[in-house]
Write a structure and sequence with these properties.
The complex is a heterodimer.
Chain A lengths: L3 E4 L2 E5 L4 E7 L7 E6 L6 E6 L5 E4 L2 E6 L4 E6 L8 E7 L7 E2 L3 E6 L1
Parallel strand pairs in A: 2-11
Antiparallel strand pairs in A: 1-3, 3-8, 4-5, 4-9, 6-7, 7-8, 9-10, 9-11
Chain B lengths: L3 E4 L2 E4 L4 E8 L5 E7 L6 E7 L2 E5 L6 E7 L2 E7 L7 E8 L10 E2 L3 E5 L1
Parallel strand pairs in B: 2-11
Antiparallel strand pairs in B: 1-3, 3-8, 4-5, 4-9, 5-6, 7-8, 9-10, 9-11
The chains are: A mainly beta, B mainly beta.
């Protein structure tokens, strides 16, 4: 019940395309869903986050879509660029600091 | 230096060695964390400190021993490690622990190899 399942494990997208990464959870008490981005040789950095009172949040080319009934949320990267190539982690928490992490998606954007 | 720094960046040690990892945050945060990152696995939270006090130990083996002398510094002392302990060890900090989730800021990690 404490797991967050992330898919796909790896993803290759052409430059200019849309990258989509999905996460699913079981614990309905989760109330905070961040996405972190990690470049090689760096630690993860917060990219965008959402709370379950909204179904979508957009920041530039990055959008989180949230489906409370399905217990799923996804990250969409529009107009994907080679600089977006990184590993993306979804996570969830339920009102405290402890994040439950997905296993990560390695995204490669081909020029 | 800005953000969260970690030293060393790479460490190779034998199973009988003793070594320490160091983390320093320059963000004025009060909470610090140690995570273990293994390939294709979720990040594993190991220890959490809040205002220098340990608040979380996620059943970590005693061969890992944390130390937090002040809110800016965090150490992870290692002794008699096993090859399966080879991983990237990440330090993170956040402004607070209470009052809901807060953005965690990560250092670049120490890549540990146990021979």
């Amino acid at each position: 019940q404490q797991q967050v399942k992330q898919s796909p494990q790896s993803l290759i997208v052409q430059k200019g395309g849309i990258s989509i990464i999905n996460c699913a959870y079981e614990n309905t008490a989760f109330d905070y869903f961040p996405w972190y981005q990690q470049f090689p040789g760096k630690g993860p950095a917060l990219l965008i986050a959402i709370r379950p009172d909204v179904s979508e949040k957009k920041e530039g080319r990055f959008t989180i879509s949230f489906n409370k009934s399905a217990k799923q949320f996804s990250l969409h990267i529009m107009d994907s660029q080679p600089g977006d190539s990184a590993t993306y982690f979804c996570a969830a928490s339920w009102g405290n600091y402890q994040l439950i992490w997905g296993a990560g998606t390695k995204l490669i954007i081909k020029p | 230096e800005t953000g969260v720094t970690q030293t060393p960046r790479h460490l190779v040690m034998g199973m009988t060695n003793k070594k320490s990892l160091k983390c320093e945050q320059h963000l004025g945060h009060n909470a610090m964390y140690w995570y273990k990152q293994s390939a294709k696995k979720p990040l594993e939270l190991m220890f959490v400190y809040n205002f220098k006090e340990q608040t979380e130990n996620n059943s970590v083996p005693s061969r890992f021993s944390p130390e937090c002398p002040n809110s800016s510094h965090l150490f992870l002392h290692l002794h008699t490690l096993q090859p399966e302990d080879s991983a990237l060890y990440l330090c993170a900090s956040s402004l607070r622990l209470a009052g809901g989730p807060d953005t965690q800021y990560f250092g670049p990690g120490t890549r540990l190899t146990v021979l």
